């Protein structure tokens, strides 16, 4: 009887200790959980701009430069760690969890490029990227889609696809821009 009592007490204390989680503790979310939080909380703020690119290509006789124009937008999603202490003027009780980046460039030579990227963050540092590139030329679509973790990104020298787009360099550059915008908000 005494052993049964000790087992029950041990079992109850183990369960109580394992469920003792702080409200402000940092949790690693999955991409599905982050998407659910973003759907509930909505966008925190948006940054937009205009692009005027020049794309050069070489022919046999001379250099051809294709002019175009386009736009981009960043949509920032924030997780508020403690709703009672939330202050919209401070990042103290919130963390960046997701940024959606959209870019569309239309060139005068009937070429169009669309980049759709979702950057997932954990503890305000990049964790996972979903990237989709669509290139339309003369009504013919070519697309590529990548899901890249930060460990895969750090291991490879360069990530290229059929369209000769260097994803690693692009991701690092955009992540720096995102962190700069987030820290200046």
Description of the structure:
The protein is α+β, with helices and mostly antiparallel strands. The protein has one domain. The chain has helices at 2-18, 31-41, 150-155, 167-184, and strands at residues 45-51, 54-58, 63-80, 94-107, 111-122, 125-137, 140-149. Strands 1, 2, 3, 4, 5, 6 and 7 form a 7-stranded antiparallel sheet that branches. It starts with a helix and ends with a helix. The model is unreliable at 18-25 (pLDDT under 50).
Key descriptive features of the protein:
185 residues, alpha+beta, seven-stranded antiparallel sheet, elongated
Give me a quick take on this structure.
With 185 residues, the protein is α+β, with helices and mostly antiparallel strands.
Topology:
Layout (H helix, E strand, L loop, with lengths): L1 H17 L12 H11 L3 E7 L2 E5 L4 E18 L13 E14 L3 E12 L2 E13 L2 E10 H6 L11 H18 L1
Antiparallel strand pairs: 1-3, 2-3, 3-4, 4-5, 5-6, 6-7
Tally of structural domains: 1
Spatial extent as radius of gyration: 23 Å
Secondary-structure element order, N to C: HHEEEEEEEHH
Low-confidence blocks of residues: 18-25
Strand content: 35-45%
The CA-CA distance between the termini, in Å, is: 63 Å
Using the alpha-carbon principal axes, give the shape. elongated
The averaged pLDDT comes out at 75
- Category from helices, strands and their pairing: alpha+beta
């Amino acid at each position: 009887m005494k052993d049964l009592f000790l087992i029950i007490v041990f079992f109850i204390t183990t369960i109580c200790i394992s469920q003792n989680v702080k409200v402000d503790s940092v949790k690693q979310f999955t991409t599905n959980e982050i998407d659910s939080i973003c759907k509930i909380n909505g966008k925190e703020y948006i940054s937009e701009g205009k692009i005027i690119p020049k794309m050069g290509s070489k022919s046999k006789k001379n250099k051809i430069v294709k002019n175009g124009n386009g736009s981009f937008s960043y949509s920032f999603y924030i997780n508020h760690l403690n709703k009672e202490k939330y202050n919209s003027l401070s990042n103290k009780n919130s963390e960046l969890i997701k940024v959606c980046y959209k870019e569309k460039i239309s060139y005068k030579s009937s070429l169009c490029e669309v980049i759709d990227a979702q950057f997932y963050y954990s503890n305000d540092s990049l964790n996972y990227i979903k990237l989709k590139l669509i290139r339309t030329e003369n009504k013919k679509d070519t697309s590529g889609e990548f899901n890249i973790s930060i460990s895969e990104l750090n291991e490879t020298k360069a990530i290229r696809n059929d369209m000769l787009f260097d994803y690693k360099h692009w991701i690092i550059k955009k992540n720096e821009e995102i962190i700069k915008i987030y820290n200046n908000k």
